[in-house]
Amino acid sequence: MTFVLSCITSDAVFQVVDRKIFKDDGGSYSDLDSDANKAVFVDGRFSFGYSGLAEISGQSTDSWLQERLAEADDRTALNILEHLRCEASKTFKTIRKLSSSQRRIAFETVFWATSEDQPKKIKPGQYVPSIAVVENALDDSFNWQKTARPEFALRASMILLESKKDIHISSIGCPLSTPEKGAIMKHIGRAVRKKNAPPSLTMVRMFEAVDWLRRRGKLVGGGMVGTYIPKTAVAKYEQTDSFHAMYSMPKRDVVCFFDVQEKPTATGHRSPLIVMGKSKVQGASGGRGFKDQICLGKRGHETGETGVR
Question: pTM of the prediction?
Answer without folding.
Answer: 0.90
